[in-house]
From TrEMBL:
This is ABC transporter ATP-binding protein. Residues 6-241, 260-502 form the ABC transporter domain. The keyword ATP-binding applies. Pfam families: ABC_tran (PF00005). Belongs to the ABC transporter superfamily. It comes from Bradyrhizobium niftali. Keywords: ATP-binding, Nucleotide-binding. It comes from the Bacteria. CDD domains: ABC_Carb_Monos_I (cd03216), ABC_Carb_Monos_II (cd03215).
Length: 504
């Protein structure tokens, strides 16, 4: 048996006055998958970053197979066979998968024998239940393939404790099953121990043996997954009994006026090849139109072209006016967005939370008087939005960098959804959110629709999409290949179109 037993004991970590971990202990039994659950900002990432030597706790220590170790840097974790697959990608886009894997080792020889390395790599990938193309540049891979390559990299590096931070958010349900099923089979064979951070209860139930719930930096519940119901886990996460899901306001039928109209849109991807091909669609007032599709089928390029961040051919109009995504047009036409990776695409990470909350209206009264900023009004607005959307942050003046992933998402939601929204473009808006925040996001999107906004929702989560939208459009290889009213939608048919097949 080579899978280690790893124990974290009494870990305490502060960021300034913020106690991110408060005396947390965690036992990862040899050959098991241990799930970590917790609301956004509960301390999950901080805990695992201590385990990979990235953060240094003020107190506490780590034992591997009963022996105490001090992790001063990620190199120490590497030497112990501990590795992590992050939410963001770490592979070099301009290199092939094989090149990335070979140069990822901590110690590189002066001379690389590519032939023998490639042989070794082929041996590793041959055993996998999924395909990872070794000779393709990472920039050409879909998000799902990149995520699989990240996992293969860790296995190739010989990790014995693998930490997976929300690994399935960019995978289709079938891919998620392949990847997590494989990790579980390695743990069951005694070759690996694993930590799985996830917000999805069904994933925890299916793939994890044990679970620990963190709340506000403390471990509040731990045990075998089989002994804990979903309600018990949810209650441990939020600290009170869970009331049933938020009831969405009843929907009113969409109005005939078209808000967003896209005609014959063509957009190239980063590789210079067409990513969106002659795409046309329309979204009406009071309607949520959902774009379903496996990531990497042109959704990103479509959104970027709509928001003026990418060259395009074809026409886009909002409420009858030509739309190029300029700041003036956005304000005049009421176009707001919840983009993917909000820290990168919707925030200025070094600026404060309060400043980021004002990015849409800093140049309008009451936030500015003439050319002078009114910092008092900026703070009042930030306080109101933080309370209303329950953003947890070290303070209003903390930089966006200091917020947990889910709280960045909440802050962007707060900023975008409290404007006069006439068109909302939401791209995987619940990526990384805990279940309470997901429900809140759904409620607010539905409220925007019921208030008369047109909503274009792009989501790789088919269940989420079918639960929210009025009409589904399936995007595959840059085109809309299928369209159906949500009430008549058949998940299997949509799945086939998503996979590029024609339904019978
Ligand atoms: N580099 C940092 N500087 C200051 N505070 C930080 C830093 N990183 C995390 N924090 C704070 O520590 C707390 C725990 O954050 P952490 O990222 O560990 O939460 P999480 O459970 O992983 O959340 P999520 O589900 O949103 O990813 C939060 O209050 C966060 O604001």
């Amino acid at each position: 048996m080579t899978a280690p037993q790893v124990e974290l004991l009494n870990m305490t970590k502060r960021f300034g006055a913020n106690l991110a971990l408060n005396n947390v202990s965690l036992l990862i039994r040899s050959g098991t998958v241990h799930a970590l659950l917790g609301e956004n900002g509960a301390g999950k990432s901080t805990l695992v970053k201590c385990l990979v030597g990235f953060y240094h706790p003020e107190n506490g220590h780590i034992q591997v197979n009963g022996r105490e170790h001090r992790l001063n840097s990620p190199k120490d974790a590497d030497a112990l066979g501990i590795g992590m697959v992050y939410q963001h990608f770490t592979l070099v886009p301009s290199m092939t998968v094989a090149q990335n894997l070979v140069v990822s080792g901590a110690r590189l020889p002066a001379y690389i024998n590519w032939q023998s390395e490639l042989k070794r790599l082929t041996e590793v990938t041959k055993k996998l239940p999924f395909h990872v193309p070794l000779d393709v540049r990472v920039s050409q891979l879909s998000a799902g393939e990149k995520q699989k390559a990240e996992i293969v990299k860790q296995l190739y590096l010989g990790r014995k404790l693998l930490i997976l931070d929300e690994p399935t958010s960019v995978l289709t349900p079938a891919e998620a099953d392949e990847v997590l099923g494989y990790v579980r089979s390695l743990t069951r064979a005694g070759e690996l121990s694993a930590v799985l951070i996830s917000h999805k209860f069904h994933e925890v139930r299916r793939y994890a043996d044990d679970v620990t719930v963190l709340r506000r930096g403390a471990s509040v519940r731990t045990g075998a997954v089989a002994d804990l119901s979903d309600d018990a886990l949810a209650e441990a996460m939020i600290g009170e009994p869970v009331s049933k899901m938020v009831q969405h306001a009843p929907k009113s039928p969409p109005k005939p006026n078209i808000v967003l109209s896209i005609k014959d849109l063509c957009v190239n991807g980063d590789n210079g090849l067409p990513a969106v091909k002659d795409l046309s669609l329309a979204v009406r007032e009071g309607e949520i139109a959902g774009i379903a599709g496996v990531s990497g089928n042109g959704q990103l390029e479509l959104v970027e072209a709509m928001m003026g961040q990418r060259d395009r051919n074809g026409t886009i109009t909002v409420s009858g006016s030509s739309f190029n995504g300029t700041r003036k047009e956005i304000a005049r036409l009421g176009v707001y967005g919840l983009p993917q990776e909000p820290l990168k695409n919707a925030c200025i990470d070094r600026m404060s939370l309060a400043e980021n909350l004002a990015l849409r209206n800093f140049d309008r009264a009451p936030l500015c008087r003439g050319i002078a900023m009114n910092y008092g009004a900026l703070a009042v607005q930030a306080e109101r939005l933080v309370a209303q959307f329950r953003v947890k942050a070290p303070g209003l003046t903390a930089s966006m960098n200091a917020l947990s992933g889910g709280n960045v998402q909440r802050a962007v939601l707060a900023r975008e959804l409290t404007q006069d929204v006439r068109l909302l473009i939401a791209s995987n808006p619940t990526f990384g959110l805990d279940f309470v925040a997901c429900e809140e996001t759904y409620r607010r999107i539905v409220e925007a629709r019921n208030g008369g906004a047109a909503v274009l929702l792009i989501s790789e989560d088919l269940d989420e999409l079918l639960g929210l939208v009025d009409r589904v459009l399936v995007m595959s290889a840059g085109r809309i290949v299928h369209e159906v009213l949500a009430d008549c939608a058949d998940k299997r048919v949509i799945g086939k179109y998503m996979a590029g097949m024609k339904a019978a």
